[in-house]
Amino acid sequence: MLLYVTLGTNDLSRAIPFYDAALAPLGLKRQRTDEVEAGYGADDDVRCRVWVTKPFDQKPATRGNGSMVALEAVTRAAVDAFYAAALANGGTDDGPPGLRPFHAHFYAAYVRDPDGNKLSAVCERPE
């Protein structure tokens, strides 16, 4: 089990509206904010599970080629809402919502945040 995920940003003020909107359909909301980072978690969780932060080493944030964060969605509608919110708030399409060939109920959407980090929302339940 993952404890948390950290995603780098070069512009936190640009990243926050994207993540506020894109993570809300997945039940995650911003719980902490300061001048270098924003933390997102569920209301019933004691810790933030997704952090968006300026790099600790003060160097520019870069995205990893081949890396992606996949977040669980409870419903396919939540996947659709994640995708729409991401695109409406500065994200770019990297694969629209739909079934994928990984198994019969793997419904996912893929986006890039304003810094180029790849995110996915996935619902593995039947419709």
TrEMBL record:
- Domain named VOC is located at 1-124
Q: Which domain of life is it from?
A: Bacteria
| Record Pfam families | Glyoxalase
Q: Which residues form a coiled coil?
A: none
PANTHER family linked to this entry: BLL2941 PROTEIN, GLYOXALASE FAMILY PROTEIN (AFU_ORTHOLOGUE AFUA_5G14830)
This chain belongs to the protein called VOC family protein
Tell me the classification of the organism that encodes this protein: Bacteria, Pseudomonadati, Pseudomonadota, Alphaproteobacteria, Hyphomicrobiales
